[in-house]
Amino acid sequence: MERQRLYWQAKNRRRRAAKRGGVSEPYTLAQIAERDRGLCRLCGKPAAMDERVPHPKAPTIDHVVPVSEGGDDTRANVQLAHFVCNSAKGPRGSQQLALIG
After folding, report:
1. pLDDT in tens, 89-100
2. What is the CATH number of domain 2-100?
3. How far apart are CA 35 and CA 86, in angstroms?
4. Is the pTM of this model over 0.85?
């Protein structure tokens, strides 16, 4: 069940990026979490890797430059974020979030 969910999440990310003319490459949440040392890149606190959305501290993939604004779905453009931090950011870039908060 978990494997199927992850498959569809990745497929949907690739589809959204391709629809907007962006580039996509394969990666997993686990790979991004390892690269980012398990820390939310928006608030700097550890993500609860054993939790799942909708838990506020659940790990999610955040696009630095949102796909909706022309960002790519690549490892260079994604970061680990808590569900609550990613939701608060919404479709804005990180720089815009800093101006709001």
Report:
1. 877 765 554 444
2. 3.30.40.220
3. 18
4. no
